[in-house]
Each structure stands twice: as C-alpha cells, then as structure tokens.
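ok trying again, last paste got cut off:
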Amino acid sequence: MPLRSPLPGAAPDVQAMRCVFIVDDDELVRNALGSLLRSIDLTVRTFATTEAFLAAPRADGPSCLVLDVRLRGQSGLAFQQSLLELGQPHMPIVFMTGHGDIAMTVKAMKAGAVDFLAKPFRDQDMIDAVIAALDRDARRLETARMQQATRDCWESLTPREREVVQHVAGGLMNKQIAGRMGIAEITAKIHRGQAMRKMNSRSVAELVRKMEALGVVESAR
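nice, full thing came through this time. structure:
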C-alpha cells in the first residue's frame, strides 16, 4: 500500500516541523513515548498498526518512524522489508523491542535502520536515536530539494542551449561548438553564457557536476 502524500497546505520549509511517527500495539508504550518526545518540542503521531500508519498523511518536514519489532500481524522487521521490496522511499526507522537478539539487530541495521533499542531503554537513548534519525531525514530532504532545483534549471534551458552545454561537457571550445552546430562562434558563446546563468553555474566543472547528477551527461570518473 503506497504512503499517502503530505498534508495539504503544509509549510514548504522542510525544517518547519520535525515529526515522529510511533507504531506500537501497546497503548501505554505509545502514550509514554509520545509524552517523552513532545517534551522536546517534536510533533508526534501514534498508531497501533502499520496499516494505520500507512493510511496517515506524511509530514512535509523531517520525519522518522519509531517502530516496535513485535506487532500483531505483520512484524516491524517484515514491514521494513516490505517497504524496501516495493522500492518506496521511507523515513528513517528506529526499532524498539523487548525480545531482541543480535541477528535481529543486524538484519534491521543492514536494511537501513538508524538504531535498535532494547526495552526497557533510557529516555535519553531514545531521544538521541530519534534526533539522529530526524537529522538524517533532514539531509535527505535538503538533497532532494537541491536536486529538484537543479532539474528545474535544466528544464528552463532551450533545446539549443542544452545542445551547447552537452558539447561544453564534452570539452569543446566555443569555436568547435559553433563548427559542430553550424552557427557563428558568437552565437555559441551567447548560448553558453545564458545556459551557465540559468544553471547557476560559475564554472564549467560545476555545470558538468550538475549535469552528471541529473544523468544528462555521463560521468567522466
């Protein structure tokens, strides 16, 4: 089941709200964890099942999931694996369990979990794990924002400007580009300058790195 889209009308600033989702079928645990994390000014949403969590809107800002390993029905580890198999991007996970073992911990961490806490855990250990998970998601969101900004810049280029910068990325000079494209050298220079400005690139190296990140030119490395 796909994760639902962010809440409508949410603030665009990804740092505006740091949200923790808690999934545990023990109401006492949910309430205690919710109180703990709200005490450090985090937004908290609690769920008894993974199905209820999946049906809930996502937050726009950095998020993480605090997930119990042993749930009624699908286990926390099985839920983590199902997300991976579906290829869905998902928020960082902090696991907690009262029946953990080394093999279980290794499996969760290899699948990308941020931490694996054995119950009973210290409040500070949970806080540290959640903050680390939120910081990881903040970095992911910032990277995604920067990639989208770069793609928007690329989409703003005209077909002729894209053709010119492809030649630039191939190491050609303005005169060579003009010869390849059958245009005047000054025209090639103008297209190159406009493309560099639209791509917010101060150097050819920076331009090429952005094009490599977008996959519109092969990496020279």
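cool. The chain is about 50% helix and 10% strand. The two ends are 39 Å apart (CA to CA).
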